[in-house]
């Protein structure tokens, strides 16, 4: 068997992991059926959201779900054609939101966030990527005193995990930092150390260029089957086989299909997210804005504005429902008077989500030579550098910088 490491997936997790393995001295080959940043990594909001330490599965969240589902403008939808398929995942999500589970998941999420922030700080100068970053901060907006007060425990939690923030308690204070917002927003929380990339696709492409410049290889391949061998793994592709000492599965929302060829089962579901990217000059956006109750954001992308978010639990095969993007843009136009909405480009992406909000990072149950690195939900960009460091330690047989037990595939 060859001594090379094969990484399956050329999105942000796969490419960042490939760079880390290369830094550690490995010969690395990245395989992807479509190429570099061709799926979810291409069109997301571009946020490094290290302040989002709380998992999505929070106590009491299931009580909110019916109202969200009944609201055609709400942040959550489930297409009728996918409703029965999603029931087992939703049951696991409900179990993960119970208080006894939540505390452990919170600790796991916060640990991965802290590691990822440190790892990103080390990665940026190593790949000369500062020019692709925006250090403008983020503002989370609330429309009433009651909504704001309900958010305070989460802000307190962030503070306990070292997140710096400032609370704003008047429309005037908000307008001073972000002019042009609707006065309906009465309160806000501002996180000054929040980062965005100018373009998530350009970010991954830049990392890929650095990787290839250091003699890394990226090839388009349609992966069919993984077969553990006595010393390594055989990767069967549509046009032949590739032997590897180790294989890392970082294929995002498609990862569970590859995992199934090993005989493993991971309850990965797809949160379909929608957005519209508006042209340069659409609005004078000073920072990343999060419209908390409505489940979407506005971010600066290449001088323009990207409006996107929400969650549609719709799997990988149903056609896109771009009415979701239309709804978000209509809301954004109401919240940002003067927003120029013409000439936008719509997009849908597939967030790979596990029911407990925590990714799978660790060896396969079927072979120690196969390492999983997927299921990051809407935090793939955020957690990419930390995930890469953990995978690097696993491949090298080293003790990881944080415990991997919360992220193990065996938890399902």
From TrEMBL:
Domain (FAD dependent oxidoreductase): residue spans on this chain: 5-393
Single GO term (MF): oxidoreductase activity
Q: What is its EC number?
A: 1.4.99.6
**Entry GO CC:** cytoplasm
Taxonomically, the superkingdom here is Bacteria
Q: Which Gene3D superfamilies match?
A: D-Amino Acid Oxidase, subunit A, domain 2, FAD/NAD(P)-binding domain
Q: Which UniProt keywords apply?
A: Oxidoreductase
Pfam families the record matches: DAO
Segments spanning the bilayer are none
For this protein, the record's InterPro entries field holds: FAD-dep_OxRdtase (IPR006076), FAD/NAD-bd_sf (IPR036188)
- PANTHER family per record: GLYCINE OXIDASE, SARCOSINE DEHYDROGENASE-RELATED
Name of protein: D-amino acid dehydrogenase small subunit
